[in-house]
Amino acid sequence: MATQHRERWFDRFRNVRRRATDTTGLFAELHRRHGDAASFPMLGKRYTVFFDPMQMEEALIGHHECLHKGREQKEALENPCLVTADGEDHQWRRKLIQPSFTPKALRSYAGVMTDDIVMRRDRIDDGDLLDMNDLTHEIALSIAARTFFGEDLEDVTPTVIKEALAGYRWLIMLSFLPMRHFFRALPLPKSIAAKKAIRRLDDSIYAAIRRIRAAGKEGGELVSHLVHSWEKGHPRGTFTEAEVKDEVVAVLIAGHESTAAAMAWSFYHLSRNPEARECLEREVDEVLGGRAPGFDDVPKLPYIGAVVDETMRVSPSVAYLDRVAVKDITIGGTRVRKGDGALFNTMTPMHSAKYFPEPERFLPERWLEPKARKGRPRYAYAPFGSGPRLCSGFRFSRIQLVLALAIMAQRWRFDLLSSEEPPVLDLVIYKFKGALDMRARAREAPSLAT
Ligand code: HEM
Fold first, then answer.
1. Which residue from 211, 248, 258, 383 could staple onto 316, CB 3.0 to 4.6 Å apart?
2. Structural domain total, the chain
3. Per residue in 378-415, is it b (16+ CB within 10 Å) or e — as a string?
4. How many CB atoms within 10 Å of residue 294?
5. Ligand 1 pocket, 158 CB below 6 A?
6. Residue 73 CA, ligand 1 centroid: distance in Å
7. Would residue 448 count as lying in a domain?
8. Residue 352 sits in a domain of what CATH number?
9. For residue 268, pLDDT beyond 80
10. Are 413 and 256 in contact (CB under 8 A)?
């Protein structure tokens, strides 16, 4: 009895450490030992992880009103926003963000994306040693800054955003610790720096909102769409600048690291799979010649789209969804009590031979079959989630990834320097932990249009 008790306490701390550093490993072990639903204790709470896509559909669509967003992001973001809101509050926020992602808005973002990536591509020299983890974060950050706030960034610079996002990451990390409220209140140097960086970003966003409101007309930037849609559609008729600011911060957090990680994983898989890389290069040369791609070219590059889809299947940058039960419910025969955490491991079905033959192989071709997307349960492939909380930015992100792979392939091949597997970090975002060193090699390709 005493041993069991000690083990339980030991498990609680071990689970905290693994959840904060190796969620994927912890979940894989739980799945192996317990099957499609497994419970574990952590920080005085009970969590159940679900691995079966049918159970995910039953829970996240059928019982979505009984499952609210989990506490990890809620604690870091503090103020309500689309990413953390529930129920009616979530529904109207979702409606207000829609004008930011219309085809017209996406077309205008695509132009900014192309300019940015072409500029970065043309700065690379043959033989350069690049940290692709760093480069992809830089690209995603610069694109977020320019598409959100416009070309006239003034004080909302990529550095301001980068430092604030690092601050949020630190706060999310603290939220995994036992006595997290105590640690958050401590004047730790990293916490002080995090709060300062977050305040600086807040102030810059407030200034941008005021400029946009003063200009009166709707511009092409995401924040301008957001401000104007809030002005027109807010259910209370009025809104505070703080509400819009919180929404902007949430979208930045939701979109930036996930896209950067997916881009880094794409370059990694292309380097490990030279045949796929050659197919991609052939498509780029045939469809684009040497001209830069735009919004209308994205559907004309199906192989690159398939590379993106396959990357997100093998290495999804968001590998699980986090909820808390607000009522007692039963999911696939497993009882989840009110207050318990429910986690949905979307990575497991994407790696299951039941849904994807030869699941560990990187095979973009599987997405080119006409029936590729039919006949599978919807959560068998859900790198962007699904149902009422489907990622609002999935088109934004997919366009950016296709453009980045196409533009870089017009001039470069990136080769991994090491055959060893680079370490991965899995704290909310599944990504490379440190540098992803690759060598740029010029390829023979149609000359680039200037
Ligand atoms: C590869 C890149 C991305 C991945 C893998 C990704 C993944 C996801 C997933 C899985 C969810 C659902 C979370 C849940 O159900 O708990 C989500 C939600 C969300 N994403 Fe993304 N995302 C990406 C890029 C973006 C971008 C670029 C933006 C914005 C520009 C964005 C904005 C959002 C927002 C606002 C939500 C909350 C939607 C809601 O709760 O109704 N995401 N994302």
1. 383
2. 1
3. ebbbbbbbbeebebbbbbbbbbbbbbbbbbbbbbbbbb
4. 15
5. no
6. 12
7. no
8. 1.10.630.10
9. yes
10. no
Nearest alpha-carbon partner for 249 in 71, 383, 80, 427? 80
Ligand 1 in reach of 259 Cβ (< 6 A): yes
Nearest to 35 by CA among 47, 49, 15: 49
For atom 7 of ligand 1, the residue with the nearest CA is 384
Evaluate: CB of 342 within 6 angstroms of ligand 1.
Answer: no
Residue of 149 and 356 predicted with greater confidence: 356
Ranges 165-179, 181-195, 219-233, 270-284: which has the least confidence: 165-179
* Alpha carbon distances (Å) from 50 to 42, 47, 56, 250, 334: 16, 10, 7, 26, 9
**Cβ(83) to ligand 1 under 6 A?**
yes
The residue range of the domain holding 52 is 2-442
pLDDT tens track for 378-411: 999 999 999 999 999 999 999 999 999 999 999 9
Q: Are strands 437-442 and 412-416 parallel, antiparallel or unpaired?
A: antiparallel
Q: How far is the CA of 191 from the centre of ligand 1 (A)?
A: 26
